[in-house]
Design goal:
This protein is elongated. It is built from 10 helices and 5 strands, in the order ααααααααββαβαββ. Helix content is 43%, strand content 13%. The chain has helices spanning 26-35, 49-64, 71-82, 89-99, 102-107, 110-113, 121-140, 151-162, 199-208, 229-242, and strands at 169-175, 181-189, 213-219, 248-256, 259-262. It folds into 2 domains: 52-136, DNA polymerase, domain 1; 146-262, Cytidine Deaminase, domain 2 (3-Layer(aba) Sandwich), CATH 3.40.140. The protein has a 5-stranded mixed sheet, sandwiched between helices. It starts with 25 loop residues before the first helix and ends in a 7-residue tail after the last strand. It has 269 residues and is α+β, with helices and mostly antiparallel strands.
Length: 269
Protein backbone atom coordinates (compact mmCIF):
# COMPACT_ATOMS: atom_id res chain seq x y z
CA UNK A 1 0.00 0.00 0.00
CA UNK A 2 1.32 3.43 -0.92
CA UNK A 3 2.12 5.50 2.08
CA UNK A 4 0.58 8.94 2.44
CA UNK A 5 2.56 12.04 3.25
CA UNK A 6 4.55 11.90 6.46
CA UNK A 7 2.95 14.24 9.00
CA UNK A 8 5.15 17.34 9.48
CA UNK A 9 5.73 18.30 13.11
CA UNK A 10 5.49 22.02 13.92
CA UNK A 11 8.98 21.93 15.48
CA UNK A 12 10.62 19.73 12.85
CA UNK A 13 13.80 21.32 11.50
CA UNK A 14 13.54 22.56 7.94
CA UNK A 15 16.20 21.91 5.28
CA UNK A 16 17.58 25.49 5.39
CA UNK A 17 18.52 25.13 9.05
CA UNK A 18 21.96 23.71 9.67
CA UNK A 19 21.94 20.62 11.89
CA UNK A 20 22.51 21.53 15.53
CA UNK A 21 21.87 25.23 14.89
CA UNK A 22 19.63 26.20 17.81
CA UNK A 23 19.55 29.82 16.67
CA UNK A 24 17.31 29.04 13.68
CA UNK A 25 13.57 28.79 14.29
CA UNK A 26 11.29 28.40 11.28
CA UNK A 27 8.42 30.19 13.04
CA UNK A 28 10.48 33.33 13.56
CA UNK A 29 11.93 32.98 10.05
CA UNK A 30 8.51 33.08 8.35
CA UNK A 31 7.35 35.86 10.68
CA UNK A 32 10.36 37.92 9.60
CA UNK A 33 9.69 37.20 5.93
CA UNK A 34 6.09 38.32 6.29
CA UNK A 35 7.25 41.63 7.70
CA UNK A 36 9.75 42.33 4.93
CA UNK A 37 8.72 44.45 1.91
CA UNK A 38 8.47 42.76 -1.43
CA UNK A 39 11.61 43.29 -3.55
CA UNK A 40 9.33 44.65 -6.28
CA UNK A 41 7.74 47.29 -4.09
CA UNK A 42 9.15 50.80 -4.20
CA UNK A 43 9.94 52.24 -0.77
CA UNK A 44 9.70 56.02 -0.41
CA UNK A 45 12.89 57.76 0.67
CA UNK A 46 12.78 58.48 4.37
CA UNK A 47 14.34 61.70 5.57
CA UNK A 48 15.00 61.06 9.25
CA UNK A 49 14.19 64.08 11.38
CA UNK A 50 17.59 64.12 13.09
CA UNK A 51 19.61 64.55 9.88
CA UNK A 52 18.93 68.29 9.68
CA UNK A 53 19.48 68.62 13.43
CA UNK A 54 22.93 67.05 13.11
CA UNK A 55 23.96 69.49 10.43
CA UNK A 56 22.72 72.45 12.48
CA UNK A 57 24.76 71.29 15.50
CA UNK A 58 27.86 70.86 13.34
CA UNK A 59 27.35 74.36 11.91
CA UNK A 60 27.06 75.90 15.39
CA UNK A 61 30.22 74.13 16.52
CA UNK A 62 32.04 75.12 13.33
CA UNK A 63 31.04 78.78 13.66
CA UNK A 64 31.20 79.34 17.41
CA UNK A 65 33.15 76.46 19.01
CA UNK A 66 32.18 74.49 22.09
CA UNK A 67 30.82 77.54 23.95
CA UNK A 68 27.76 77.48 21.67
CA UNK A 69 26.79 73.96 22.76
CA UNK A 70 25.46 72.48 25.99
CA UNK A 71 27.19 69.42 27.43
CA UNK A 72 24.55 67.04 26.07
CA UNK A 73 24.96 68.61 22.61
CA UNK A 74 28.73 68.09 22.64
CA UNK A 75 28.20 64.47 23.63
CA UNK A 76 25.49 64.15 20.99
CA UNK A 77 27.85 65.57 18.36
CA UNK A 78 30.42 62.93 19.27
CA UNK A 79 27.86 60.13 19.28
CA UNK A 80 26.90 61.04 15.69
CA UNK A 81 30.16 59.39 14.62
CA UNK A 82 29.74 56.36 16.85
CA UNK A 83 26.04 55.71 16.14
CA UNK A 84 25.47 57.04 12.60
CA UNK A 85 21.91 55.83 11.98
CA UNK A 86 20.13 56.75 15.20
CA UNK A 87 18.88 59.85 16.95
CA UNK A 88 21.62 60.31 19.55
CA UNK A 89 20.10 63.15 21.58
CA UNK A 90 18.15 60.78 23.91
CA UNK A 91 21.29 58.67 24.40
CA UNK A 92 23.44 61.73 25.22
CA UNK A 93 20.88 62.99 27.73
CA UNK A 94 20.50 59.52 29.27
CA UNK A 95 24.28 59.25 29.76
CA UNK A 96 24.45 62.63 31.51
CA UNK A 97 21.40 61.81 33.65
CA UNK A 98 22.97 58.50 34.66
CA UNK A 99 26.48 59.75 35.45
CA UNK A 100 25.96 63.45 36.20
CA UNK A 101 28.66 65.14 34.08
CA UNK A 102 30.76 64.79 30.94
CA UNK A 103 33.79 63.87 33.04
CA UNK A 104 31.82 61.16 34.81
CA UNK A 105 30.54 59.75 31.49
CA UNK A 106 34.07 59.35 30.15
CA UNK A 107 35.32 58.08 33.50
CA UNK A 108 32.63 55.43 33.88
CA UNK A 109 33.53 51.74 33.43
CA UNK A 110 32.42 50.15 30.16
CA UNK A 111 30.02 47.83 31.99
CA UNK A 112 28.12 50.75 33.50
CA UNK A 113 28.10 52.65 30.21
CA UNK A 114 26.41 49.68 28.56
CA UNK A 115 23.58 49.83 31.09
CA UNK A 116 22.36 52.98 29.30
CA UNK A 117 19.88 52.15 26.55
CA UNK A 118 21.46 52.61 23.13
CA UNK A 119 25.06 52.13 24.30
CA UNK A 120 26.58 48.84 23.20
CA UNK A 121 30.05 47.45 23.76
CA UNK A 122 31.54 49.16 20.70
CA UNK A 123 30.26 52.62 21.72
CA UNK A 124 31.38 52.09 25.34
CA UNK A 125 34.88 51.15 24.19
CA UNK A 126 35.02 54.17 21.86
CA UNK A 127 34.09 56.48 24.75
CA UNK A 128 36.85 54.93 26.86
CA UNK A 129 39.30 55.34 23.98
CA UNK A 130 38.50 59.05 23.80
CA UNK A 131 38.94 59.28 27.58
CA UNK A 132 42.34 57.57 27.34
CA UNK A 133 43.50 59.97 24.63
CA UNK A 134 42.52 62.89 26.88
CA UNK A 135 44.44 61.39 29.82
CA UNK A 136 47.54 60.81 27.69
CA UNK A 137 47.34 64.39 26.43
CA UNK A 138 47.29 65.76 29.98
CA UNK A 139 50.13 63.43 30.98
CA UNK A 140 52.24 64.58 28.05
CA UNK A 141 51.99 68.12 29.42
CA UNK A 142 53.86 66.94 32.53
CA UNK A 143 56.55 64.87 30.86
CA UNK A 144 59.99 66.44 31.23
CA UNK A 145 58.69 69.54 33.03
CA UNK A 146 59.32 70.61 36.59
CA UNK A 147 56.19 69.20 38.16
CA UNK A 148 56.20 71.47 41.21
CA UNK A 149 55.94 74.52 38.95
CA UNK A 150 53.01 72.95 37.06
CA UNK A 151 50.93 72.01 40.08
CA UNK A 152 47.58 72.79 38.49
CA UNK A 153 48.47 70.46 35.60
CA UNK A 154 49.31 67.70 38.09
CA UNK A 155 45.95 68.07 39.81
CA UNK A 156 44.10 68.21 36.50
CA UNK A 157 45.81 65.06 35.24
CA UNK A 158 45.27 63.11 38.47
CA UNK A 159 41.63 64.15 38.63
CA UNK A 160 41.01 63.06 35.03
CA UNK A 161 42.77 59.74 35.61
CA UNK A 162 41.33 58.77 38.99
CA UNK A 163 38.32 60.78 40.15
CA UNK A 164 35.72 58.43 38.70
CA UNK A 165 37.36 55.11 39.51
CA UNK A 166 34.97 52.83 41.40
CA UNK A 167 37.79 51.32 43.49
CA UNK A 168 40.66 52.94 45.35
CA UNK A 169 43.80 53.30 43.27
CA UNK A 170 47.26 54.21 44.59
CA UNK A 171 49.45 56.06 42.11
CA UNK A 172 52.99 57.43 42.40
CA UNK A 173 54.63 60.18 40.38
CA UNK A 174 58.39 59.54 40.35
CA UNK A 175 60.57 62.65 39.94
CA UNK A 176 64.24 63.22 39.21
CA UNK A 177 66.56 65.69 40.98
CA UNK A 178 65.08 68.55 38.90
CA UNK A 179 61.59 67.48 39.99
CA UNK A 180 60.80 66.48 36.41
CA UNK A 181 58.50 63.49 35.87
CA UNK A 182 60.33 60.21 35.27
CA UNK A 183 57.37 57.84 35.56
CA UNK A 184 53.74 57.70 36.62
CA UNK A 185 52.71 54.28 37.88
CA UNK A 186 49.69 52.73 39.54
CA UNK A 187 51.10 50.71 42.42
CA UNK A 188 47.91 49.05 43.56
CA UNK A 189 44.13 48.71 43.35
CA UNK A 190 41.92 48.08 46.33
CA UNK A 191 38.31 48.06 47.41
CA UNK A 192 35.88 50.97 47.59
CA UNK A 193 37.60 52.28 50.72
CA UNK A 194 41.01 50.65 51.08
CA UNK A 195 44.18 50.01 49.08
CA UNK A 196 47.09 48.04 50.56
CA UNK A 197 50.34 50.02 50.31
CA UNK A 198 53.78 48.69 51.24
CA UNK A 199 56.35 51.45 51.97
CA UNK A 200 59.35 49.22 51.20
CA UNK A 201 57.95 48.40 47.75
CA UNK A 202 57.37 52.10 47.06
CA UNK A 203 60.96 52.96 47.96
CA UNK A 204 62.35 49.94 46.09
CA UNK A 205 60.63 51.11 42.90
CA UNK A 206 61.93 54.66 43.40
CA UNK A 207 65.50 53.33 43.63
CA UNK A 208 64.99 51.25 40.48
CA UNK A 209 63.96 54.37 38.58
CA UNK A 210 66.70 56.54 40.16
CA UNK A 211 63.97 58.83 41.46
CA UNK A 212 64.87 61.33 44.17
CA UNK A 213 61.36 62.57 44.94
CA UNK A 214 57.80 61.25 44.98
CA UNK A 215 54.26 62.56 44.84
CA UNK A 216 51.77 60.06 46.23
CA UNK A 217 48.22 60.10 44.87
CA UNK A 218 45.13 58.05 45.59
CA UNK A 219 41.41 58.44 45.09
CA UNK A 220 38.37 58.18 47.34
CA UNK A 221 35.51 56.59 45.37
CA UNK A 222 33.07 58.00 47.94
CA UNK A 223 33.82 61.41 46.43
CA UNK A 224 35.00 63.01 49.69
CA UNK A 225 38.77 63.69 49.52
CA UNK A 226 39.16 64.24 53.27
CA UNK A 227 42.20 62.21 54.42
CA UNK A 228 41.61 59.40 56.89
CA UNK A 229 43.82 58.54 59.85
CA UNK A 230 45.06 55.54 57.85
CA UNK A 231 45.99 57.83 54.93
CA UNK A 232 48.05 60.04 57.21
CA UNK A 233 49.78 57.16 59.00
CA UNK A 234 50.63 55.38 55.73
CA UNK A 235 52.12 58.60 54.28
CA UNK A 236 54.34 59.11 57.33
CA UNK A 237 55.57 55.50 57.08
CA UNK A 238 56.61 56.05 53.45
CA UNK A 239 58.34 59.34 54.36
CA UNK A 240 60.24 57.65 57.19
CA UNK A 241 61.29 54.75 54.93
CA UNK A 242 62.36 56.98 52.03
CA UNK A 243 64.18 59.77 53.87
CA UNK A 244 67.31 57.81 54.92
CA UNK A 245 67.82 56.87 51.24
CA UNK A 246 67.70 60.48 50.06
CA UNK A 247 64.18 60.26 48.61
CA UNK A 248 61.77 63.11 49.37
CA UNK A 249 57.99 62.79 49.49
CA UNK A 250 56.69 66.15 48.31
CA UNK A 251 53.01 65.51 48.94
CA UNK A 252 50.18 63.03 49.14
CA UNK A 253 47.17 64.13 47.10
CA UNK A 254 43.74 62.59 47.63
CA UNK A 255 41.37 62.88 44.67
CA UNK A 256 37.57 63.04 45.02
CA UNK A 257 34.92 63.48 42.37
CA UNK A 258 34.51 67.19 43.06
CA UNK A 259 37.87 68.20 44.46
CA UNK A 260 41.10 67.14 46.09
CA UNK A 261 43.02 67.35 49.37
CA UNK A 262 46.75 67.87 49.86
CA UNK A 263 48.25 66.46 53.04
CA UNK A 264 51.06 68.98 52.79
CA UNK A 265 48.59 71.81 52.23
CA UNK A 266 46.64 70.66 55.31
CA UNK A 267 49.95 70.50 57.24
CA UNK A 268 49.42 66.84 58.01
CA UNK A 269 52.94 65.91 56.83
Amino acid sequence: MAKGPVPHSEDQQLPFAAAGDDSVDERSFFAEQAGKPSPLSVQPAKDEHYHGHRERLRQRFRDHGDTALADYELLELLLFRLIPRRDTKPIAKALLDRFGSLAAVFGAPTGLLQEVKGVGEAVALDLKLISTVAHRTLKSELRGKQVLSSWSSVIQYCHAAMAHETREQFRILFLDKRNALIADEVQGHGTVDHTPVYPREVVKRALELSATALILVHNHPSGDPTPSRADIDMTKMIIDTAKPLGITVHDHIIIGKDGHASLKGLRLI
